[in-house]
What we know:
Blueprint: H1 4-14, H2 17-27, H3 33-42, H4 49-58, H5 66-77, E1 82-89, E2 95-103, E3 107-111, H6 116-119, H7 127-143, E4 148-151, H8 159-174, E5 182-187, E6 190-195
Parallel strand pairs: 3-4
Antiparallel strand pairs: 1-2, 1-5, 2-3, 5-6
Helix pairs in contact: 1-2, 1-3, 1-4, 2-4, 2-5, 3-4
Amino acid sequence: MTSLARTVVDLARTETLLSALIAGDVALKCCDENELDAELQRARGWKGVAQARRAVNLMDGRSENPGESQSRIILRQGGFDVESQVEILDPSGRSVARIDWMVNGLVVCEFDGKAKYTKYLRQDENPGDVVFREKVREDAVRDLGYPVVRWTWADLANPAELVARVARAVERAAALPPPRGSVRITSSGEQTRAHLPNAREIA
């Protein structure tokens, strides 16, 4: 039986980039990057190892579902700087929201799968209550000066249009005053905090 890290590297050598990323993003919740790097070293000289190395470099255990994995690769292939699972804080340091991605340090991007509105149901709530909470949350994010771009599974079928939408939002955001507050970014198991006198500094 092969290890989880070995299985991920084998998939990355032989399958599509998207398939490898979906599997790898999930696997990184159970193994770490060092294990994947060790398996890449063992696979030196094997067919597809360069492809696997590229895939491993793009994997991110912070993705919460396949839609997020697919969205992230579309954004990266679109040329954007993408930071996953960012917590937005107001000027007092109060947490306002945790978002799917911060793009170019300026634009909040969110993937809306159908499960999102059932996963976070509280006792005696209905999906409408979750939608309302989501609206309040988004209003608070916008109030700090962040444009918000949302999409669904259907939008992933047209990556070019999705990239164009995000690019337009980035262009508009670059002409606005910098957002207020700060962000907390989770990276390699550690949380770091970046204040935003100019949001572009965190990209």
